[in-house]
Automatic annotation (TrEMBL):
Annotated source species: Thecamonas trahens ATCC 50062
Protein name (Swiss-Prot/TrEMBL): DUF1648 domain-containing protein
UniProt keyword list: Membrane, Transmembrane, Transmembrane helix
Residue intervals passing through the bilayer: 57-83, 104-131, 143-164
Signal sequence segment: none
């Protein structure tokens, strides 16, 4: 099993790797795209607004790297949030000891980074469909709705698994008094 530090590194690496793949994707298409690119589509996939190639690529990169910053910063903020502000089922158990607290915060950071990488993978998918529509002069592929449904199902599964993981206590869990999580108690993370 990987150590908490290794899991945090791997999650961060994954988030950055997907963003780098998006960047390479944008660079590959920079010379292939026409000067005006469809940037908005109606429900049937027909373009109804166009932007310059530079604007579309700029929005793509700003979105991807903005999401990286948001997911990494929020993931990090999760690990330094004082315990009294953490809203987690059975937090008295999950945050009771430094080891459990480290495992809990590592899990939250890791899953949050996976969600961020998945979001950027969805961005890659959407922009690829958009680029194909621009180059071929066609409507946006109906694959968009399939990809959107997959992303939304993955987001729902992420949310449900997160709630279920912390709602259930291990069979050998000892009850922990809420007083053990005193306000202002210094957090010790073992990362």
């Amino acid at each position: 099993m990987l150590s908490p530090r290794d899991r945090v590194f791997l999650a961060t690496f994954t988030t950055l790797l997907v963003a780098l793949v998006c960047t390479v994707h944008a660079l590959i298409y920079m010379d292939r795209l026409p000067s005006r690119v469809p940037s908005h589509f109606d429900g049937s996939g027909n373009p109804n607004s166009w932007s310059s190639k530079g604007t579309v690529l700029g929005v793509y990169m700003a979105t991807v790297w903005g999401l990286v910053v948001i997911f990494l910063v929020v993931g990090w903020l999760i690990t330094i949030t004082p315990m009294e502000y953490v809203n987690l089922p059975n937090k008295e158990y999950w945050l009771a000891t430094p080891l459990r607290r480290t495992e809990t915060y590592t899990y939250l950071f890791t899953v949050f980074q996976i969600w961020g990488a998945s979001t950027n993978a969805f961005m890659l998918f959407v922009f690829q469909l958009m680029f194909s529509a621009a180059i071929n002069g066609e409507a946006l592929s109906n694959l968009f709705w399939f990809g959107f449904a997959v992303y939304m199902l993955a987001t729902a599964a992420f949310s449900i698994s997160l709630a279920l993981r912390f709602r259930r206590l291990p069979a050998d869990a000892q009850p922990v008094a809420a007083a053990s999580l005193r306000s202002g108690q210094k957090q010790q993370l073992l990362i």
